[in-house]
Amino acid sequence: MKKHLLFICILSLFASCLELEENDSVSVSFYVKNTAENSISFSTTIWKFSQINGMYKVTNDYTVNSGDSVLARKATYSSDVIEPNKWFESFVITPVEGIEMNNPNLVENWVKYIRDGSPVYVFTLNQ
């Protein structure tokens, strides 16, 4: 009887650690593309949530080589629609001489695609 009770306790402990999948949640990806001949650097700040630490900001620095793109953020959210420019607390592009940059705070600068049923947003750094 004690073995069964111990097994049930351990099983429930592992089951409580599993992530529950919600039917109305959607995965969204944010890519940043560079079509210029030079590398372009930028940094983003996002809010993260931890059950231990609560809400906190995370800043990441990126360098995008010429003709390349990087995944700046991937997240899962409920079916509520959020504009792509609102997913970043800050988005700062390092100026490069001779290259005019797009504004990441304007929603029209983010192009939306659907891949495998999930939205993918692409922002091109330079004009």
Could you walk me through the main structural features you see in this protein, from its secondary elements to its overall organization?
By secondary structure, the chain is mostly beta strands. The termini are far apart. Helices cover 13% and strands 44% of the residues. A four-stranded mixed beta sheet has the order 4-1-7-6, with no helix packed on it. A three-stranded antiparallel beta sheet has the order 3-2-5, with no helix packed on it. The protein has one domain. It has one helix at residues 2-17, and strands at residues 26-33, 40-50, 54-64, 69-77, 90-93, 110-115, 118-124.
Q: What characteristics describe this protein?
A:
mainly beta; 7 strands; 127 residues
Set down the secondary structure blueprint.
Blueprint: H1 2-17, E1 26-33, E2 40-50, E3 54-64, E4 69-77, E5 90-93, E6 110-115, E7 118-124
Parallel strand pairs: 1-7
Antiparallel strand pairs: 1-4, 2-3, 2-5, 6-7
The CA-CA distance between the termini, in Å, is 70 Å
Beta strand %: 35-45%
Number of domains: 1
Global Rg:
20 Å
The SSE order reads HEEEEEEE
In brief, what are we looking at here?
The protein has 127 residues and is mainly beta. It has one domain (23-124).
